[in-house]
Design a protein that fits this description.
Blueprint: E1 14-16, H1 31-40, E2 47-52, H2 60-67, E3 71-76, E4 85-91
Parallel strand pairs: 1-2
Antiparallel strand pairs: 2-4, 3-4
């Protein structure tokens, strides 16, 4: 992480969300949110984390996650030649 995590973040049980993608014709229909919510339903972890490229979709992807309740906690660059990603987290059950 480029900056220290907020206090307590690393101590909480966390599910990691890798990617959610839906085909073009399904975008904007709520399908991605329903898939997201179903994946988290019944999970025992108290929070979920993800990484997002802040440039994806001209910032629209990160803005979407923010509307879903995620908040930025840090940034990281998993590989030297890769983009700097925004680390985000939210409570599992919202």
């Amino acid at each position: 992480m480029a900056t220290p995590l907020p206090p307590g973040t690393a101590e909480r049980s966390t599910a990691a969300l890798k990617e959610i993608m839906v085909r073009q014709r399904w975008r904007g229909t709520g399908v991605a949110r329903r898939i997201h919510d179903e994946l988290l339903a019944g999970r025992p972890e108290v929070q979920v984390s993800l990484l997002v490229n802040p440039l994806s979709g001209d910032g629209k992807v990160q803005a979407l996650y923010e509307r879903w309740g995620y908040r930025k906690i840090s940034a990281q660059q998993p590989s030297a030649d890769g983009p700097v990603l925004t680390a985000m987290v939210r409570h599992t059950h919202q």
